[in-house]
Amino acid sequence: MMQKSTISIAVFLSATIVIGCSGGSGGAVPTAVGQRTPSSATLNSPPVISGSPSSTATVDQPYVFTPEASDPNGDSLSFVISNAPPWATFDSDTGELSGIPSPGDAAVYDEIQISVSDGSTLSALPAFSITVSQNAAGMATLIWTAPVANTDGSPLTDLTAYRVRYGTEPGSYIKRIEITNAGITTYVIENLTPNTYYFVLTSINSQNIESAFSNEASVVIP
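Below the sequence we write its predicted structure tokens.
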């Protein structure tokens, strides 16, 4: 049997109302009858809403925005949204906009606006946009030394291929790559989403005999 290879990894990776009137010089000042200034208890002040929603979102990553709102009169509040992104949900009780965009949702979503109402008056945040981008993928470069002998010490003269196995759990390699060029000792694996990956390599000869696993190498894609 062939000797196993050793691999290493490099990563690249309300107004006040005043009532009154004035007469001519020296004239009497008439008094308004049957009128009075409304008390502050009868005036409705609009609710206040604030917050700065993120203008970016990433595929397969949670997006959450919750505005802050209050009402000077202590009225109950409810929220509404216009032009909500189709991948997001909206809570009319809290104003929270949340969701996880999928790869098909990568786009720009314009004129989103969240408003709050106290039942009679509406206040709104400025309209905003959300740009959904694809998840930034990383890559790992595997580098190994080609085996030159079998496990019995005899020369290895019929090396034909390599096999790379990898996964996101130590000792569990659910993905496999076949490298049919025995002259290759470097291989780049691309489009790795954020996670920790574990790799092993085997060698294969012309009789399709496969070596034991190499040492396990790992890399963290942030």
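The chain is about 0% helix and 40% strand.
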